[in-house]
Design brief:
Elements (H helix, E strand, L loop, with lengths): L11 E5 L3 E5 L18 E6 L7 E6 L5 H7 L2 E4 L11 E4 L25 E7 L7 E2 L14 E7 L14 H4 L24 H11 E2 L3 E2 L9 H15 L3 H12 L1 H5 L10 H13 L12 H6 L27 H13 L6 H9 L22 H14 L3 H14 L17 H13 L3 H12 L19 H11 L42 H9 L21 H14 L3 H12 L12 H5 L8 H13 L12 H7 L25 H13 L3 H13 L19 H11 L5 H16 L7 E3 L2 E3 H11 L7 H13 L19 H12 L86
Parallel strand pairs: 3-9
Antiparallel strand pairs: 1-2, 3-4, 5-6, 7-8, 7-9, 10-11, 12-13
Helix pairs in contact: 3-4, 3-15, 4-5, 4-7, 4-15, 7-9, 9-11, 11-12, 11-13, 13-14, 13-15, 16-17, 16-28, 17-18, 17-20, 17-28, 20-21, 20-22, 22-23, 22-24, 24-25, 24-26, 26-27, 26-28
Length: 911
Amino acid sequence: MAARLLSLLSALLLTVGLGTALVTTAAPAAADPIGDCTATRGAVVAVDFGDWGGDVVRGCDTTLTTGMDLLHDGGFTTTGTVHDGPGFICRIGHDSFKGGAQHPTPADEACQLTPPANAYWSYWLAPVGQDHWTYSPLGALSRQPKPGEVEAWVFGPTDIGGGSGQPGFTPDDVRPGGGGDPDPGTSTPPPVEPGTVDTDAAAGWLTGRLKDGDHIFDEGAEGPNHLQTAETAFALAAAKGRGATFDKTKAYLTAHTAEFAYPRGIGEAPDPKGAARLALVAEIAGDDPRDVGGHDLLADLAANVCVAGPESGSTPGCSAKGDFTDAGTTEAQALSVLALLRGDVKPPAETVSRLAALQCATGGVTGVLIRPGENCEGDAATTALVALVLERAGGHDRAVTKALDFLKKSQRDDGGYVAYVGSAAGDVAITAAASQALRALGDVTRADAAMSWVSRQQNDDGGFGFEEAMTESFLYPTVHATIGGAGTNLVTLTTKPSEPTEPTDPPTTPPPTDPATDPPGDGAGPDLKKGTAYLTAPARLKQGRYYENMAGSGFADYGLTIDGAFALAATGHDNNALRGIVDFLDGEGEDGSTPGRTVNDWTGVGTTHAAGGSIGKAALLAETVGRDPRDFAGQDLVAALGKAVCLAPSQAPDRRCAAKGAYAYAPSVFSQTLGIMAQLRAGEQDAAAAPIAYLKGLQHDSGAWPSLVPPTGDSEVDSTAMAAMALDLVKDDEAAEAVDQALAWIAGEQLPDGGFPGASGNSVNSAALAVQGLSLDARKYGDEIAAARKFLAAQQNGDGGFNVAADGQPGSDVRASTQALSGAVGTSFGTLVRDLTGTTPQPPIVTPDDSGDFGGSGGGTGGNDGSVPGGLASTGVQLWGLALSAVLLSLVGWGTVVLARSRRTAAGGPR
């Protein structure tokens, strides 16, 4: 779980089993006295040694940098794992407990491989004023503690999403003075300068986005974006009333009712995301939502409500009783209820109850249609919408009051709101959405403060970026800013009578066009050349050979290095750099740590810790570039993979084999698929038969695959895409049907902006893997692929790298960038090939921060460049599968997340 830069660690080497080394910290810095940390200064970390008969030990740090530094500067020492590096916290110690001995002890956990999900150090947060723990969405190296917060580390099991395993003590138990910290939001509203949004300019910017003056058509897409067209109609109605542009947009949507509201065909259940928005457009205009394009939208919505969840075995598109079929998100559920209410149709009682049930203990509302017992964390935008709808529905006064309190507590001193716990940047759309509920529910002062903050984010072209100080304008935040700036909301929004004199000319200052970015193919996707340059920059790719696990450690992240090689193989823009990586790994790849590790230490090949997923990943790279997987890095990886196939499940405490047909120490579906693809590409169909059968048996009735092995019941885009790629190589009828079901499920998970939910929220990595999966049937899923590639392009930064998530903290991340490039090309890992003929051996690239030896001491990747052990990307695919980007306890790199928008899954694993 994490934060950004780690203070330099000295490597104290503990020799274990095979002679490989664990990386531990140097002696901890002298901790600041606990009394020095207050509600406005410093942060406190608490570590529970209760599993070994100890107490909860606290530490204080008044100079806040990262969660890892908070541990070390608070007086604690840590140890990583041989497989994952020093960034993954395997042991923690403190001088006050057993003389500083770290726990678990070597007798309990060798820290050779990633610890299991039922016995690891989990990372929890509680900002100022929060009376409960939140599972960290970031790793300790990626997360910057805020003044007054407390953090906790607890050893033991945690289920997917952090729904269990919370600390046995409260945040107030470990705060300085035993609690009593001020609760932001319950005192006076933030004092801010007045400010108003220029809604005319915002509407002008939106109008300029309309193709033919009536619909949104994303650049490079194969078809119009109906959802964004409807959102634009909402904003135009708020800013301009019922004018010619609004009417044209409404007419366009009406003419496309069938494809927007009934994508599965007339007579099938409507898509709530489209049907509800179409109904609301009609209601806002004063038209009849029972006759839109010849369809009764309200009757069709009301007739398609889930009677049970997936436990019934026959309710596709249902996560629980009361869902609108295929709603997928809380937003779609709320808009569907609202459409019925505004159309004077009483919503089925269970649909409203379902909305209320999505409220968390904090009063916030989760953006995901979670099931009972799953981790619940609210975000301000979803909370605001649901509060407005429940207020309109009536009978939920307590829930509305709790939601309002949550919004008050979540507001920053400058009036803005952040996208998720731990983020430093204010979010325009979320702040504008919160203002709508605050105003409607009577807190006009706070609403004005929020919109004052939003007004300061308006760009010269009239539009808005996603976050503060973002100078490029985007549709989604501009829509919300316009509605909030007009002082209205979707519950009350209505249009004025038609005004024929309204100008229909384009805005006076036309919006700027996007700069050319050398797009691939149809021009809709990311700039592959810039992305390649980002990945191959010497500051990141150490000596042109490997990525570090932790900046400056010299400790190679072999899994991430192979991810980078896959990305370069996919794009073909720097085959010489790819050759450098491949030669390094084929020569066993000794890194710059002390003593040096090799890729064979990472795979464990030839040892009792041989990890099937890691072996499969290395073999798959060899096959991709035309090397012999039977003689790669001095090993026969094909034979080793065959030996790693489990004949039967192992008995606790041995965790080598999850089941017959699983690979040894392969705790995720992702790992399983890597092994299968490597075996099949090597012509080992018979050897792969048992692993294939096991993989097939993990598929849910919905078509999705879980993240973990053995399975825990979750469903994940990343794992499903990888499973589809693996089974596409099998070529039998059963596999073909499984692939078809998988792709249909993936397509149904796509978010309105083209992204997909993953460990980090609206995830770049998940979107990229989804593109690769859907490209197995590109003819059928062309629209979804185009939208996802457009989403990826929007997440590419000026340096060529990619954000981890659309709804997270901006900043380029190496792991996300590797997957984004692979995904943008769309080639399956099962068929990816790159011929290195014509390339030559590459000499080491020595930079000023390198030692100049072969492995190099490493110089640090800088910024948000991160790594996750063995994974293709921090996506939700796990090493042992906790569905949280944070599970990677402290791996460099952040997986920012609005927990409410996605079911979190753990990043990493020997993917």
